[in-house]
Amino acid sequence: TVFPDFQLTRISYLTQSPRVQRDEEVKYILAKLDKLMPHRTFTDINTSTSAKNSRATVVNHKDAYCVGEQLAVQLDVYDRAGRRKEYRGDFLQVRISSPGLQAGTSGLITDYRNGTYLVNFTLFWEGTIKVSLLLIHPSEGVSALWAARKKGYDKITFKGKFLNGTSEVLTECGFAMNTTAELCKYVDERDQEAFYCMKPSKVPCELMSKNSPISYLTALEMELLDRYLYLQMVCFSYIVQAR
Q1: Does 8 score more than 50 pLDDT?
Q2: Is residue 123 one of the residues assigned to a domain?
Q3: Which SUPFAM superfamilies match (predicted)?
């Protein structure tokens, strides 16, 4: 995770409706996240974090470990030009696994906010474990995604396509539509996130076939977020024994 020190304090609202309460909680969470995000701008992709150039060191190296012990890995990140990074916020995924046992667990990341991360794994089972450290997005990519997210739902618009027999109808869609026209509402039941489309004349809302994608990322930022450039960082194995 990018935010090991993030803790959510639940807010209580005694008199507000569930929708208002949820909206207030979302605002609270986003405000907390904004303080933890790496606010970086860049013009050269070579200044972004490189999985290939970064270095992982086992802090408490042993030939073998016992069940219940900790495996500690220090990760020092470098950019694509080979320079040491000096700020925080890379999106990392860290896991240990034993595919033969169908066992796996995530590690705990401490971000020292200077380009160094400490990853601690608790060794829960015996056998050979594979340690995997992945760079999902560099800190510059995380910053770009967050900046795009903050553009504002009320400013995000896109097109929805409705199929009516053999004809297609395109209408304007968005997360907050400022209009008195009749709208179609589409809700994700998992988190109650909703978007709206202006309802075409004489076409049911159920006939929407797809909506066109939109992005507030630049071409350079899109390249930065290409997982094939960044995904693998380091992978190695250790033996864990019973006590």
Answers
A1: no
A2: yes
A3: E set domains
Tell me if 134 sits within 8 A of 93, measured CB to CB: yes
Burial bucket for residue 71 (CB in 10 Å: 0-12, 13-18, 19+) = buried
Residue 54: CATH number of its domain: 2.60.40.10
CA distance 208 to 232: 39
For the chain, the distance separating the N- and C-terminal CA atoms, rounded to the nearest angstrom, is 31
Question: Could you tell me if residue 138 is inside a domain?
Answer: yes
C-alpha–C-alpha distance, residues 37 and 5, integer Å: 12
Q: What percent of the chain has pLDDT over 70?
A: 84
HSE-CB at 188 with a 13 A cutoff on CA atoms is: 6
Q: Which domain holds residue 203?
A: 152-211
DSSP classification of residue 10: P
The string of pLDDT tens digits covering residues 109-162 is: 999 999 999 999 999 999 999 999 999 999 998 998 888 877 765 666 778 888
**Same structural domain, 49 and 125:** yes
Global confidence as pTM: 0.71
Same domain? For 177 and 68 the reply is: no
CB 40 within 8 A of CB 65: no
Q: Is residue 142 domain-shared with residue 233, that is, in the same domain?
A: yes
Q: What is the pLDDT of residues 43-61, one digit of tens each?
A: 888 999 998 899 999 999 9
Q: Which of 230, 224, 226 is nearest to 40 (CA)?
A: 224
Beta bridge partners of 179: none
